[in-house]
C-alpha cells in the first residue's frame, strides 16, 4: 500500500501544470500610441520636461534594433521576456524586472531573445534647464523643496551608469497607471500624468542614490504650529461656546499644555485670546451695522448679553454704545 501511494504521489507531481499569470501590461497594447500622442510638457522645479515617447513595445523573436543614440534621456524597462543590450563595448543580458537608462549620447543596440521575445516599457523624454527660471521666494508658498529634489534627481540621472539594474522601486507600475488615467480621462488628468512621469524619474534615480541623498523636509516648531491651529479654530468658531478642553482636543494636546502654549507663543491666556477675538468681531459689527447690541453679543458668544458691557468697558474704557457713537457707527 505504501508503495502504491508513493507511486501515485510521484505520478501526480509530474502531471502538475505550470499556471502562467496574465501579463498586466497587455491592456497597453490596445492602443499602443495612446500616450505617445499626448503633447505632455511641464515644469518641474527649474527644469522643463517634455515627453517624446511613453509606450509598451513588443519585439518579435530575434529582433534587432540597430546601434543608435539620443540627445535626450531614454528609460528602458523590461516587464516580460528576455534580450540583450549592447552599450558601448559591453553586452548585458536583459530579463523581466530590469531597467536601464541610455542617457544623452549613450550608444546602444538592443536584441530580443529568439525563444522568449522581449517587451519593453519606454519613457523617452527631454529634460532641460529653464533659462531665467524663477527662483523660490519667501512667500511661504514657493516650492523650494521641489526645486532641490528635481535638481538632485536630474543630477543622479546624469551620473547613472548605463548598466541594467533591478526596478526595485516599481517604476514600471507607473506606466500602467498612466495608461489607465488616459483611458478614464477624469478630473485632474494632466496633473496625474505629470506626477506619474515624475515618479518614473524619481524611482529610477532612487536605485543608485545613497541613503542620505534625499532632501530633508524641515521640521515644524510644534508649539508655534499648535498655537496657530488653536488660534485659527477660535477665529472660525468664536460665535459658538469655546472651552479650553475643546480646543486642546482639536490640536491633540492636554488643556494644561495648550494653556502653556498660549502663554509662550501668544503672550496671553487662552481665555483672554478668545475674548480678544470676540471683541474685535463685535467692534466691527458696531461700526458696520445698526443691529442692537444685545443681538450682536448673542451672535458672538455671549450667552448673557449683559455680560458684554463690563467686559467691553474694561477692555476699551467705554461702553459699546459710546464706542459706536464715537467712531461714527450706524
TrEMBL record:
Q: Name one GO molecular function term.
A: sequence-specific DNA binding
> Which part of the chain is the HTH araC/xylS-type domain?
228-326
Q: Which domain of life is it from?
A: Bacteria
Keywords in alphabetical order: Activator, DNA-binding, Transcription, Transcription regulation
| Presence of keyword Transcription | yes
Sorted alphabetically, which Pfam families does this protein's record hold?
AraC_binding (PF02311), HTH_18 (PF12833)
Q: Does the keyword Electron transport apply?
A: no
What is the protein's given name? Answer: AraC family transcriptional regulator
Q: What organism does the record attribute this protein to?
A: Cohnella zeiphila
> Mind giving the lineage of the organism this protein is from?
Bacteria, Bacillati, Bacillota, Bacilli, Bacillales
